[in-house]
């Protein structure tokens, strides 16, 4: 026959207190661990703001030199924000390719870095791309012929569908649209009438 073992009251209280304390400690440890994990996990980059600075195509001109032909794209940048904006020197300007609308860096690309655009104002900037004649097996003398220059320009412009500026500091992306197909037609018509 089993004896009915009774535990003294103080032992029961002690065991319950130890159990509740251990449960509370485990719960508190889990909460602190989750809080530390949540606070130290990598934060995703905010999306690029494509509406802060708007670019509008204004003009295209060509200039030829002894070894290169320069394409000079002019754009008007409009600051749509309520604060002044300076294009940071670490901003990246890339060429957009028409075949797949991908972006490509071009080390020959020259542009006016550090431009200041006051709030709700516009700034006109130039993007300049040189093309070496030797890269395309053509000479400056051949491009002195306006018809040949137009063909050369059409071929080079067909390789570009615009530009994009990425400002990593402010997370701004400025899209520079393709505005030259109409311009090239006007230039060709103007040159053929002369």
Structure description:
The structure is a single chain. With 194 residues, this protein is α+β, with helices and mostly antiparallel strands. It has two domains: 9-43; 53-193, Immunoglobulin-like (Sandwich), CATH 2.60.40. The protein is built from four helices and ten strands, in the order αββββββββααββα. The chain has helices spanning 9-40, 140-143, 146-157, 180-193; strands at residues 53-64, 68-79, 85-86, 92-96, 103-104, 110-111, 116-117, 122-132, 163-167, 172-176. A four-stranded antiparallel sheet has the order 1-2-8-6. Strands 5-4-9-10 form a four-stranded antiparallel sheet, with no helix packed on it. A two-stranded antiparallel ribbon has the order 3-7.
Brief overview:
Helices cover 32% and strands 30% of the residues.
Notable characteristics:
194 residues; alpha+beta; Immunoglobulin-like; elongated; 4-stranded antiparallel sheet; 2 domains; 4 helices
Beta content comes to 25-35%
**CATH-defined fold name of the largest domain:** Immunoglobulin-like
Text of the CATH class of the largest domain: Mainly Beta
Gyration radius from CA atoms, angstroms: 33 Å
What is the mean pLDDT? Answer: 87
How many helical elements?
Answer: 4
Unreliable stretches covering 5 or more consecutive residues? none
Question: Helix-strand pattern, N to C?
Answer: HEEEEEEEEHHEEH
Task: Determine the structural class based on helices, strands and strand pairing.
Answer: alpha+beta
Strands, total number:
10
Report how far the terminal alpha carbons are from each other: 125 Å
Shape: elongated
Strand order of the largest sheet: 1-2-8-6
Give the CATH architecture of the largest domain: Sandwich
List the quaternary state of the chains: single chain
Number of separate domains: 2
The percent of residues in helical segments reads 25-40%
Largest sheet: 4 strands, antiparallel
């Amino acid at each position: 026959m089993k004896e009915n073992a009774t535990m003294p009251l103080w032992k029961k209280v002690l065991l319950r207190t130890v159990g509740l304390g251990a449960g509370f400690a485990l719960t508190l440890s889990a909460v602190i661990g989750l809080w530390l994990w949540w606070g130290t996990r990598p934060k995703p980059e905010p999306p690029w703001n494509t509406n802060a600075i708007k670019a509008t195509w204004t003009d295209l001109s060509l200039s030829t030199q002894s070894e290169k032909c320069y394409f000079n794209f002019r754009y008007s940048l409009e600051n749509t924000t309520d604060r002044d904006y300076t294009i940071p020197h670490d901003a990246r300007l890339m060429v957009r390719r028409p075949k797949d609308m991908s972006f490509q860096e071009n080390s020959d690309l020259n542009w006016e870095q550090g431009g200041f655009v006051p709030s709700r104002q516009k700034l006109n900037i130039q993007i300049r791309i040189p093309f070496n004649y030797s890269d395309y097996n053509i000479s400056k003398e051949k491009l002195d012929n306006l018809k040949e220059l137009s063909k050369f320009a059409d071929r080079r412009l067909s390789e570009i569908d615009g530009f994009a500026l990425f400002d990593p500091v402010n997370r701004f992306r400025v899209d520079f649209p393709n505005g030259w197909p109409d311009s090239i037609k006007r230039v060709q018509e103007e040159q053929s009438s002369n």
